[in-house]
Amino acid sequence: MNELIKVNYDSDRPTILGRDLHEFLEVDTPYRIWFPRMCEYGFVENVDFIGFEQICTKPQGGRPSQDHQLTIDMAKEICMLQRSEKGKIARQYFIQLEKAWNTPEMIMSRALKMAERQLKQLQIVNAELTVDNQIMKPKADYFDELVDRETLTNFRETAKLFDVKEREFINFLIDKKYIYKDKKGKLVPYANKNNGLFATKETYNEKTNWSGTQTLITPKGREAFRLLYLGTIQLMK
Q1: What is the distance between the alpha carbons of residues 111 and 96, in angstroms, rounded to a whole number?
Q2: What whole-number distance in Å separates Cα of residue 97 and Cα of residue 76?
């Protein structure tokens, strides 16, 4: 999809600059007058848009100009208000952008990035709480062990956290090609889909004296699968 208007993906949802939209729509009214008029239709600051000042980069200098980061929903409504061919084109562009943003692939990509950030934050907190007591042990090894021991969950526990049936959750992961059943019927992750989503651990059951390996889900995996599952359910509605 060609980029008619530059889109910012740095935040949790895509946004565009108000001045970029104003320029694309070819509005005759100056932006400083036009934008407040648009806000009269009920748009709320820090919900639908965020205001900021653009520093003038011209050699001759000048005053900073006011600009705004707009949500895609706000941009679509503004396009409808223009009642112009350019407004229609821009609105269709934003609709296609939203569809691409909400595909399972994009949801999964955002989920992985979010899970990675959360895991790094957890490791930092663990470092601050435990480093003083772990002087004689390599810090990185200790944090890995701590995260593994306290945050890994099996398929049943993870399904319970999502408030879904264990079988439904397992079938969902199998259908999405994240896990498969080996010849012994054990659930095993695909190597090319793991990327820190799963961990395989040696397990021993004292009651049955059974020992073997078990596939567990990492914090990164839980967050990624939660967002992917919710996104898939929403697309099916």
Answers
A1: 21
A2: 11
Helices (H), the chain: 18-24, 31-39, 72-82, 85-101, 104-130, 139-151, 155-162, 166-175, 219-236
Please answer whether residues 101 and 85 qualify as being in contact, where contact means their C-beta atoms are separated by less than 8 angstroms: no
| Average pLDDT per consecutive 10 residues, the chain (237 residues; last block may be shorter) | 82 89 95 95 94 70 81 95 93 89 73 73 71 51 49 89 90 92 90 85 69 86 86 58
> What residues contact residue 184 under an 8 Å CB cut-off, 6+ apart?
none
DSSP 53-91: EEPP-STT----EEEEEEEHHHHHHHHHHH-SHHHHHHH
Q: Rounded to an integer, what distance in angstroms lies between the CA atom of residue 79 and that of residue 155?
A: 46
Residue pointed to by tokens 């306290």: 150
pTM assigned to the model: 0.47
Decide the pairing of beta strands 187-189 and 15-17. unpaired
CB 214 within 8 A of CB 201: yes
